[in-house]
Amino acid sequence: MERRIALKNMGMALGLTVATPTLISLLQSCQGEPDTSWTPIFFTPEQGAVLTQLVDIIIPKTDTPSASEVQVHVFLDRYVQEVSSKADQQLMIAGLNALITLALSSSGKDKAINLTSEDLEAVLAPALAQQSPEDSTRLSEAVTEFNLSIESNSEASIVDELSSTWFAQNLRGSVIWAFKTSEYIGEQVLAYLPIPGGYIPCGDVNELTGGRAWSL
Length: 216
Description:
Elements: H1 4-8, H2 21-29, H3 45-58, H4 72-82, H5 86-107, H6 117-128, H7 133-151, H8 160-180, H9 183-189, H10 205-209
Helix pairs in contact: 2-4, 3-4, 3-6, 4-8, 5-6, 5-7, 5-8, 7-8
């Protein structure tokens, strides 16, 4: 499936909006059968286990595969390692750790590996709730200050509440993006036409694709 042109016009919520050869190769390398023995390359094994559950909370299995079944967690781990900026990497770690800490506190558990989807959903949902304009401004200013500190090689910090919210919001956008551009979803779920035919500007989508959005 040819994605090069489409990817150039897409961006992940983690930062970059240009599809480099690295990004394209990452996307292609994460296709295939789920790897149950997956070991993260950026996150720790415990963080990777939590990440796998989080992506499936965002896109669970229904009549289509869950996010982890199309390797979204694997792709995100590689993306953060190989493409994300230093500031975004540190924000990802800070935000994920803050979310884990909150889940441990609210569930009464002492190890991240013991957290269930229910434990994580209980703290993910509030972080994804609609923010007031004031809260959005506060988050934006905190992230900007964090990025500037990283760029100037100064000590950077951000409060857990804000880092977990930033992480949750960016994770949701990234999971949706990676899921929709995976090979299986692009070819088997969305309407996929590898060799386009004539242009039909005003056709009914139900007649053209059975109501499905186009893959590309």
